[in-house]
């Protein structure tokens, strides 16, 4: 029994770095997508549009990065990540995203809403790029 538990733990730890690298790639892709959309929006609509697009993109990328970090930390435990860890992390991600969206709307009065939503939607859907890569 002891050897079986050690084998399962070794297998989990062997897969953990790949999982962490994959999650980090998705988060880095989302942050890069936020900056690309911000640059495009700045070229089209000026500084305020670019900054609004960046804020929109980061409003989703930052909570997603925190969720990935929490999920990765859960995989390092001997039992691995539990479904409770996933659902609590997902709930916290949704609440953080809503809070950041509301904070931008409330604190930044020069928001260009079209650019803001474009940044948010592009980052939200940017993981599709990794799905089609081999």
Mean residue pLDDT: 82
How many strands, which pairing sense, and closed or not: the largest β-sheet? none
Helix/sheet category: mainly alpha
According to DSSP, the number of beta strands is: 0
Could you tell me the radius of gyration in angstroms?
18 Å
Distance between the termini: 38 Å
Total of helices: 5
**What overall form do the CA principal axes indicate?**
globular
> Any low-confidence stretches, pLDDT <50, length ≥5?
1-14
The fraction of residues in strands falls at under 5%
Secondary-structure element order, as H and E? HHHHH
Description of the structure:
The chain has 134 residues and is mainly alpha-helical. The protein contains five helices and no strands. Helix 1 runs antiparallel to helix 2 and helix 2 packs antiparallel against helix 3. The longest helix has 44 residues. The chain starts with a helix and ends with a helix.
Structure described in brief:
This protein is mainly α and 134 residues long.
Please supply descriptive tags for the structure shown above.
5 helices; single chain; mainly alpha; 134 residues; disordered N terminus
Topology, please?
Elements lengths: L1 H44 L1 H29 L7 H25 L5 H13 L1 H5 L3
Helix pairs in contact: 1-2, 1-4, 2-3, 2-4
